[in-house]
Design a protein that fits this description.
Radius of gyration: 15 Å
Number of strands: 3
Shape: elongated
Number of helices: 4
Number of domains: 1
Length: 81
């Protein structure tokens, strides 16, 4: 990978982190993993993922887990129930 490609990739990642921070600062309530939300609200992870995909549910990437896990806001989940 050349330097220009890597810089472009890092700029995209930085933009995504900025967007995630804006969402985090705007949202009220606790953020939780999909498995936590599934247990607490008795909603399947499939439904939660579908709502994330169609934009009904706001999600953040959990950067502590290398961005491999989504976090959802409990207040957002209450709205889809």
């Amino acid at each position: 990978m050349n330097h220009e490609t890597r810089i472009t990739q890092l700029e995209r990642e930085l933009d995504e982190v900025k967007q995630q921070l804006k969402l985090l600062l705007k949202a009220e309530g606790k953020w939780m993993s999909l498995s936590e939300a599934e247990k607490k609200f008795d909603v399947s992870q499939w439904v939660l993922r579908r709502c994330i995909k169609d934009g009904t549910l706001v999600r953040l990437k959990d950067w502590k887990k290398n961005g491999n896990r989504y976090l959802v806001n409990q207040n957002s989940i209450k709205k889809i129930q």
